[in-house]
Design goal:
The protein is α+β, with helices and mostly antiparallel strands. Helix content is about 20%, strand content about 35%. Strands 1, 2, 3, 4, 5, 6, 7, 8, 11, 12, 14 and 17 form a twelve-stranded mixed β-sheet that branches. A hairpin with a 2-residue loop joins β2 and β3. The two termini are about 35 Å apart.
């Protein structure tokens, strides 16, 4: 199942993608949830009801080109991110492999959806790109081991961890969080794809194109801390909640590691593509 949040005349609504259309679930049947977070919280039982109602029809739907997609989870309780979680990216950065996940956060004000503009802040001259697989948590709890933690995955989406490197790396004592959470620095989408459609999350091709040129090209098998291990580690600290977004790190090819460095400029189009998840496209504009 591919879950989206669409803008309708009645406000944001949870939708299911079917081919080139998005079905407005609550408009189709008032018993169905209005938000993706509610669907995630309801688990398999709610997804089964959705499938049955769609199968019976008729449905209220919008063609893909005629509806605006919002971030698929526009109201996450938490946005948590991993740094240096790809072996090939750590090698590119000249960093030792971390023994535990390197963590930072973004705020919900950084979230944007597909085709929304990444606003380059006037106070930064080194805004970088990072393609990422995002775990979407599907139920509340604190799993104690990686195997049980995998059951807490509600789905996966594509993320772009936009990063102001001058704020992240050149401020006193370094400032990872502040360099990562400028407004619009967390594009996500286009949909949340449930685990049954994704298959093995540790074997997905992940790429980023800048103005059509491939800049990042790797596979999630390069992750140092895989999905279950990541969630179990986070659960040592806080309760996982439906709708939490976990950015899982980026592969090599980022701008600051290139010689000379490449940073985003106004008009740049960035496409993040992850196998079986789709393409997330955004354009950079000057703030």
């Amino acid at each position: 199942m591919r879950l989206a949040t669409i803008q309708t005349p009645f406000g944001p609504r949870a939708a299911v993608q079917r081919d080139d259309a998005f079905i407005d679930l609550h408009a189709t049947d008032r018993s169905l949830p209005q938000s993706v977070r509610e669907i995630l919280t309801g688990g398999a039982a709610v997804r089964k009801s959705i499938e049955e109602i769609i199968r019976r029809g008729p449905v209220i739907q919008y063609q893909a080109g005629a509806v605006k997609l919002l971030p698929p989870v526009p109201d996450p309780p938490k946005i948590v991110c991993l740094g240096l979680n790809y072996r090939d990216h750590a090698a590119e950065s000249g960093a030792q492999l971390p023994r535990e996940p390197v963590l930072f956060s973004k705020y919900a004000t950084a979230l944007i959806g597909p085709e929304d503009a990444i606003v380059l802040p006037p106070v930064s001259q080194e805004v970088d790109y990072e393609a990422e697989l995002v775990i979407v948590v599907g139920k509340r709890g604190r799993p104690t081991d990686p195997k049980s933690a995998e059951e807490y995955v509600g789905g996966y989406t594509i993320g772009h961890d936009v990063s102001a490197r001058d704020w992240q790396l050149k401020k006193d004592q370094k400032q990872w969080m502040v360099g990562k959470t400028f407004d619009t620095f967390a594009p996500t989408g286009p949909t949340v794809v449930t685990p049954d459609e994704v298959g093995d999350p540790q074997n997905l091709a992940i790429r980023l194109r800048l103005n059509g040129q491939t800049m990042q090209d790797s596979n999630t098998r390069q992750m140092i801390f895989p999905v279950g291990e990541t969630l179990a580690y986070l659960a040592k600290v806080f309760t996982l909640e439906p709708g939490d977004l976990i950015f899982t790190g980026t592969p090599p090819g980022v701008g600051f590691a290139r010689k000379p460095p490449i940073y985003l400029k106004p008009g740049d189009v960035v496409e993040v593509e992850i196998e079986r998840l789709g393409i997330l496209r955004n354009r950079a504009v000057q703030g």
